[in-house]
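ok so I'm stuck.
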Amino acid sequence: MQSEQRETGTRHQWPDRVFHWVMALSVIVLCATVFLPILGLRFDWVPAHWIAGFVLVAAILFHWLRVGLVHGLGEMMPGSDDWREVVGDLRARSGAPGPAKYDAYQKGYHWLSGLVVLVLVVTGLVMMAKIDTPWWRRDPSILSDAQWGLIYVAHGFASLAILFLVILHVYFAVLPEHWTTLKSMIRGRGPLLARGAGHEQKD
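replied:
not stuck anymore, here's the structure
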């Protein structure tokens, strides 16, 4: 069995933790500014909404830069081991899945939430044509009514999806068995492997 020193280390570097919490805060503001008025809380939500949207775009661009220059796609790309983890009955025939920093479910959540956020960002940026900002005047004529309808439907469904994913993420994060992983997103140190054992990753 590995020692505690071998099992733990720097799981998340500080730029990645900053990205995570900036993204989380911007998504919370986006959700609050959309759903609170629906629940009856009246306030001027539009400026806070699009500003939080731009913060989210900046955070995503930073994340892509980190992936391209520092992390690479390898740690988050699904592979045969992840399929073995999800489809449990294959383990006996194909062998147990190997060690990984992120397990199959974490990877699946990452890609699903990434797709949903991408839909939100693209449709949200298009919708910016319908409001006045310090940089341009509104011009809804860039799309037809039918096209605007599709944009709003996609944005609405993605909004509901991201709200569900945020609730799901918070639920699993506060489970006692995930506390060490949650703490690693605050202070950096935590379990180096989400699946398997026997491999040590460098700090």
